[in-house]
Amino acid sequence: MKTRTALSLAAAALVALVAPAAAAAHAELIATTPSDGAVVREAPRAVVLRFSEPLESSFATVEVHDPFGRRVDDRQLTRVDPRTLKAPISRSLSRGTYRVDWHVVSEDSHPIGGSFLFSVGAPSAGGPVATAGVGPPDYVNPLFGFVRFLDFALLLLVAGGAVVVAWPLAAAPPLLRSRLLTLLAAWAGTLIVVALAGIVLQGAKAGGYGLGDALGWNSISAVLDTRFGRAWSFQAAAAALALLLALAARTRPGLLPAFVAAGGALVMAPSLSGHAGSGSRLAAVADLAHLAAAAVWTGGLAVVFVALLTAGAARWELAATAVPRFSRLAVASVAVLITAGVVNAYEELDSWSELWETTYGRLLLVKLALVVPLLALGAYNNRYSVPRLRSAAASPGERRRFLRSAAGELALVVGIVAVTAALVSEPPGRSVQNERRTNETSRASLPSGASAARSRRPSGGASSKPAAR
Description:
single chain, alpha+beta, Immunoglobulin-like, 2 domains, four-stranded antiparallel sheet, four-stranded mixed sheet, 13 helices, disordered C terminus
C-alpha cells in the first residue's frame, strides 16, 4: 500500500511538473435557438447561440442562409451577454431548411467555428444548398504553430538569459559578457518580430484570411482590441525594452537588474493572453511562477552552455563558478515548477483517465516522456559533474561528458517547447468533461427548442469578416 501511494505521489508530481499553466479552456457552442435539426412551425425572428466561455468582441460572425444559399439574416450581430450571440432576422422566412454558419474567438484567444441546420414548416427536399465555409489558407495554422514555438523559445532564452548573466555568469570576462548581452539583444529583437507576426497570424486564423488581408489595418486593429492582441503588444514592448537594456548593460553593468526585470515582464505575456489571465488569481500566480521557473531553468541552461562554448581558454575557470551557481538556480526552479504545476494540474484534470482519453492528456504524456530524461541528466550532472567542476578536479574526459550531457539537455528542451506550443492550443481534460456535462444541462437554460449544436475547432467557420460590436 505504501509503495502504491508513493508511486501515485511521484506520478502526480511529474504530471504537475509538465502541466502547462497557460493551458486554455476554450469556449464551446453549447446551445442554439432554434436547435440543430429542429423543425419549427413559425419562422424565428432571430438565431441565438450560447457558448461555455466568454467571447472576444472581435471576429464574431453568424450567417443564416436560405435553401438556395442566400443570406437572410440582418447582418447586425448583437451580444446578449458575454457568452451569447444573437443574429436578428427581420424578413419572413419561407418553408424549407436553413443553414447557420458561425465563427467566434473565445476570450482565451482561440478561434472556433461550425454550422447547424433548422427547418421552417418542413425540411427542404434534398436539404439546403451548401454554403462554402471561408477559413484561412492551409498554411496559416502550421505557420501560427511555428510562430508560437519561436515565441516560447525566445521568451525562455531572453528571460532566463538575463538572470544567468546577472548572477551565475557574473564572473565571466567582460568581453564574453558583452558578447552574451549582444546575443540576448538579438534574441529580444527577433522576439519583437515574432510577436508582431503573431498578431497578424491571429487575425488570419480568427478571421479566415490569407496573409495579405491579415496585414490590413482592419484585421490588425480588430486583433489589438482582443486580450490576445493586447498581451502580444505588451510582449513586443517588453522585448524592445529588454533589447535596449541588454545593449546598454554591455558598458553599464549596473543596468543588469533592470534587464532582469524586463525579462520578468516578458514572462507575463503568455499568462495575459491565455486562459489563466481570465481565471482566478491563484491560477494567474501559478501560471506566472511556472513560466518564470521554466525560463530560468531552460533558457538559463542554454545561455550558460553558449557561454562555456565561447569562453575559450577561460572555459573551465568560468565553469568552476558559473555551473554550481546555475545548479542551485535549477534546483530551485524545479521546486517552483512542481508547486505551480500542482495547482494547475488540480485546475485542469479531473481524473487520471483524461491523460489518455483526451488530446491534451496525450500531449502531456509526450511532454512527460521528454521531461523525465531531462530531470535524470540534470540530477546526474548535479550529483557528479558539478562537484568536480567546482573543485577544478574534472578530467578532460569528464569535461567532454559534461558538455555532451548539457547538449542533450538542450535537445530535450527544444522538444519540450515544441510540445508545449501544441499543448496550449488544446482544451484541458477538465474542460472537455465540463463541456459534456454542460451539454446535458444546457437545454433547460435557454428558451424552448434549444439544444447543443455541432462545432469544429479551431478556425474554419463560414465567416470571413469581423462582426460589428
